[in-house]
Amino acid sequence: MSIEDRAKRLDVKKDYETQKRVAFTVKDKERKTKHSVFYSKDKKEWFCDCKWYATRFNSTKRHCAHVTAAKNRS
Ligand SMILES: [Zn+2]
Prior knowledge:
Blueprint: H1 3-8, E1 11-17, E2 21-28, E3 33-40, E4 45-48, H2 51-60, H3 65-73
Antiparallel strand pairs: 1-2, 2-3, 3-4
């Protein structure tokens, strides 16, 4: 399944928005996982606390499904 397809199956809830950042909680009902996604308005960068993001983003420059889901709905 592509990241885009996985992103469509995730639940995105916007937690709060400040002048500097937007925060989301992204839930995967099938895998029973929950991740925090942030968007930094200063740096124009997305961040997720999942393992994929911590280990793979630097080499692939591809966002995880959680960030993709938050992006689609923001
Ligand atoms: Zn993620």
